[in-house]
Please model this.
Amino acid sequence: MVSQSAGPDEDLLLALLNSAPAVGGRITEELHARAAGEFAVRFGGTGSDAELQQLRLMRQVLQDVIRAAEGATERLTELLSDISLVPEPSPAGIQWRLEADPPKRLAARAALAWARFAESTPGRLKACANSDCNLFFIDRSRPGTGRWCSMTTCGNRMKARAHASRQRTSRATDAH
Model:
């Protein structure tokens, strides 16, 4: 287990996962040009082109892992193949130092945040159940049954669709 604080890297993880939202039914890319550089710098990166490429790769792989896509675990293993954690013992305990080429460091931190989160709260990091949405969220509901990134947007849309579908089915049944 890595003893880095979960807060900032948890924020990095969610921001990275949600950096390709669906707008008007199309996936948009927020990790490009100046905005992406600002994204990387905000989380302690450099904003270099190589770093942004690694972030985009890690985002796609982590999204696929969370969605349990076929081959995602193997792609994650490949992305992390030259990353390591080095123990630094002290009287206070062991701190773990991330060893990675600079362009891969921020992406590796996001992967570590995902691993910590998956271990400490399994099943709580989810993709929105709205097929027109590409956002991820932390399910903070007590039973862990949350389905949407936002009840006011995706939840209401999905419930309205289900209601309309039931109405159509009911009318079709009544017509026969």
Remarks:
- DSSP finds six helices and six strands in the chain.
